[in-house]
Amino acid sequence: MIQVENLSKTIENPPSRVDILRGISFEVPSGQFLAIMGASGSGKSTLLGLLAGLDTVTSGRITLDGTDITHLGEDAMARVRGKKIGFVFQNYQLVPTLTAEENVLLPAELSGMNSGSRQRARDLLERVGLTNRAHHYPVQLSGGEQQRVALARAFITQPPILMADEPTGNLDSTNGQHILDLLVQLNREEKATLVLVTHDRLLAEHADRILTLRDGLILSDELVPARVTS
Fold first, then answer.
1. Residue 229: inside a domain
2. What number of CA atoms fall less than 13 Å from residue 166's CA on the CB side?
3. How would you classify residue 138: left for phi > 0, otherwise alpha for psi between -120 and 50, otherwise beta?
4. pLDDT grade, residue 227 (50/70/90)?
């Protein structure tokens, strides 16, 4: 589903040069939950931005679901994001003038997927426990509720790839665990490929696999032992 080949990202501001990512390569098979870990400055957020086409690579190649996005223009990349990627941000990124339901609907409307979208939005809000908050605005919602709206929004277009950047970073431990549980549950139901950036090892251990970066290089790439559930 995701192929990264010899990917580098360098920022040059003569006479200085910063190598954020230094020739990393990996693949993510369809349906896998990959957590990307690393200390501040390791390159993990930059990597996620490159995978989402929000930044340009210095060298190397990125392929998403068979599409080489490395040198796509802004309009073409926007179309790819609309069809292939759902995104969950740390700070929710809800539109303040839209209700919860309208925020969830927005990606579907932007991508022209209007048929059945409103019912799907309502179904997703029900799945994240916010049916009774559908017509509330973000300012009327708690942080945990806003992130639940953001989760529903990320899945509205049924994207094959979901990316999450520190999705529990602004929440307390109880709300953070709830969001993580919902994210994992929705992802399994929707059968998306999930890439999550976090600095939290306990959160990362809910993934199928952990990729750890240090100084722009892959320090380790490990499978997480399957949990035994009753």
1. no
2. 16
3. alpha
4. low
Q: Dihedral through CA 1, CA 76, CA 56, CA 184, nearest 10?
A: -40
Q: Place 192 in a pLDDT band, splitting at 50, 70 and 90.
A: very high
pLDDT tens digits along 70-128: 999 999 998 898 889 999 988 999 999 999 999 999 998 887 777 789 999 999 999 99
CA torsion angle 163 169 173 177 (round to 10): 0
> Of all residues in the chain, what percent are helix, strand and coil, respectively (each to 5)?
35, 30, 35
Residue 120 located in a structural domain? yes
Query: How many residues in the chain?
Result: 230
- Across 29-140, the runs of DSSP E, i.e. the strands, are 33-37, 59-64, 67-68, 85-88
Which stretch of DSSP H or E encloses residue 93?
A: none
Q: Which domain CATH number covers 201?
A: 3.40.50.300
Transcribe 122-148 into DSSP letters.
Answer: HHHHHHTT-GGGTT--GGGS-HHHHHH
Let me know: does 1 contact 29? Beta carbons within 8 Å: yes
